[in-house]
Specification:
Structural class: alpha/beta
Shape: globular
Strand order of the largest sheet: 10-11-6-2-1-12
CATH superfamily: Bira Bifunctional Protein, Domain 2
Helix content: 25-40%
Largest sheet: 6 strands, mixed
Radius of gyration: 17 Å
Strand content: 15-25%
Number of strands: 12
Length: 267
């Protein structure tokens, strides 16, 4: 199978609405055959709480978010709540024609190979979580309180989580390489009770808690590009979004405002 050169997009920090709408726009264009597979690396211009596509809006304390000047956005992908700021976020948009395996489990595993290689380049010995998705009667609203095979861990603590959505034969997967995080602020924003807050605190790992000195955002970006290149034998060409992609992203940005959870199908 011929693998095209992937686009590498290095974006400056953006708002939650911008970040989510751009990720989705790239997926729309790739699914339509108008864009090459893409690795996009970006950040957040303000602390932002992202919610999974189906996550109940009632789980968010909007008064606490306003008081803390934390924006709230809904992702196009599934999963639970994540507080973003001091991190490097990646998104992958690619399809079956690009070598992505069919199916959620296989495609997660394929991309995780690159993430493991990236963490190794940073001197972090991460591993894939071997825990299946745990169903509980009252699940935590916080992503980092639970582990699935899509997560990477260090010493049984969650270091990096990912979420996916498919559009035809094209997947969008995004996730965070978190440098530091205020887990107690995250717990407050997601209305966690004391027990859930303690679980989140003891279940979360960050790059700054592992590495000394702490790698820069630029070195983390370089490690990600190296990880995808080496683990998956990919070639990259730095590029930028097309005017059409930017226009579509602007048009759909309202879809990611933190309104009621979406009822559209996703994986």
């Amino acid at each position: 199978m011929h693998t095209p050169t992937w686009r590498l997009i290095l974006d400056p920090p953006g708002s939650g609405l911008t970040n989510m709408s751009v990720d989705r726009a790239i997926q729309i264009f790739h699914a339509a055959g108008k864009a090459n597979p893409t690795l996009r690396l970006y950040g957040w211009c303000e602390p932002t709480l992202s919610l999974g596509r189906f996550q109940p809006i009632e789980e968010v304390d909007f008064d606490a978010a306003a008081a803390s000047q934390v924006a709230v956005v809904r992702r196009p992908t599934g999963g639970r709540g994540v507080l973003h700021f001091d991190e490097v976020t990646y998104s992958v948009v690619a399809g079956l024609r690009d070598g992505i395996p069919r199916g959620v489990t296989a495609s997660y595993a394929w991309i995780l190979r690159a993430l493991l290689c990236a963490f190794s380049a940073l001197g972090i010995d991460a591993s894939r979580s071997n825990r299946g998705l745990q169903r509980t009667q009252h699940p935590s609203a916080a992503c980092y309180s639970t582990m699935t095979p899509a997560d990477l861990t260090v010493n049984m603590k969650k270091l990096s989580g990912s979420a996916q959505v498919w559009l035809d034969d094209t997947v969008l997967q995004h996730g965070s390489l978190t440098i530091s995080k205020d887990v107690f602020k995250e717990a407050q924003l997601l209305r966690l009770d004391p027990h859930q807050t303690e679980t989140l605190a003891v279940s979360t790992s960050t790059i700054s808690s592992i590495c000394c000195p702490v790698p820069t955002h630029e070195s983390i970006r370089l490690a990600l590009v190296q990880g995808f290149s080496e683990a998956l034998d990919l070639r990259f060409e730095q590029s930028s979004l097309s005017e059409e992609e930017l226009s579509i992203a602007s048009d759909i940005s309202g879809q990611f405002a933190p309104g009621p959870s979406s009822s559209s199908s996703t994986t």
